[in-house]
Design a protein that fits this description.
269 residues; alpha/beta; Rossmann fold; 9 helices; 7 strands; 15% strand; globular
Length: 269
């Protein structure tokens, strides 16, 4: 048995980016640990979700616990920082936000958990945090620093296959499957969204557990409405869009044309 730890910026990030690999790891008998940097205080609130007097962060902590139960997570920890908001917002620089956190101090907090759990594999985000969010970028920095402190030698950077998504969007548009008001992200080579296919070392097929991934995402009801892009698509379309999870092992180089590793516990073949 190995121990997988997934480090994320906000509640619901875990379900989108690594929900599948966490569910697969648990199914295969491994221990799964989820660490979240913030409680997502600055998320957009879906109408009618919060109880009277309830703060968003309180609900998001509950939602994280519910999603973790769906995915089979053994331990959930929050590092205690505040959500920084989107890049460029004044909230980025407020005291206590993850973006303003001292990287070494935050890494010490995470490293204590990694050592306690004797983690074998840690997931963080790619260098640009998948799409440029300050808290995601900080996860990348803090995660790598914590792994070095704790002696974790396998660190995988969760990312998105920009080329796969570009092709999928084009095909969905041709079929008329995208909402009329949907604005696809910028997928050019200079885009901050995801990574080019050539950079990705691991592609994990999570279709066997994609129903769990969808239920975990739905548990974050304060952020993800039933009629949202994520949940309004049918099961087949959801599996096509979210049935793969991608990672970069920065310590390795995948030769052109070489296969990708297919589990987070596997090195590049």
């Amino acid at each position: 048995m190995a121990t997988l730890a997934c480090f994320h910026a906000h509640p619901d990030d875990e379900s989108i980016a690594t929900g599948g690999v966490m569910a697969l790891a648990k199914r295969d008998g491994h221990r799964v640990v989820l660490v979240v940097a913030t409680r997502g205080e600055r998320g957009e609130i879906q109408p009618g979700v919060l109880d009277a007097g309830e703060e968003l962060w309180e609900r998001r902590v509950k939602e994280t616990a519910a999603a973790a139960e769906v995915l089979g997570v053994d331990r959930v920890e929050f590092l205690g920082y505040e959500d920084s908001g989107m890049m460029g917002e004044p909230t980025n620089d407020e005291p206590g936000t993850f973006w303003t956190a001292d990287v070494g101090e935050a890494a010490d907090r995470l490293a204590a958990i990694l050592r306690d759990e004797q983690v074998d594999v840690l997931t963080v985000y790619d260098a640009n945090g998948n799409y440029g969010h300050p808290d995601h970028i900080q996860v990348h920095r803090v995660g790598h620093a914590a792994a070095e402190r704790a002696g974790v030698t396998r660190v995988l950077e969760a990312t998105m296959d920009r080329d796969f998504i570009r092709q999928g969007m084009a095909e969905a548009a041709e079929r008329g499957d995208l909402p009329d008001d949907f604005e696809p992200p910028d997928h050019t080579d200079e885009s901050p969204f995801g990574s080019p296919a050539s950079a990705i070392t691991h592609e994990v097929d999570v279709r066997d557990v994609v129903a769990q991934k969808r239920r975990a995402l739905a548990a974050h009801a304060s952020q993800v409405a039933p009629d949202s892009f994520f949940l309004s698509m049918d099961d087949d379309a959801f599996a096509l869009a979210f049935g793969q999870e991608w990672f970069i092992d920065p310590s390795m180089v995948r030769a052109p044309g070489a296969p990708r590793a297919t589990t987070v516990f596997q090195e590049v073949p």
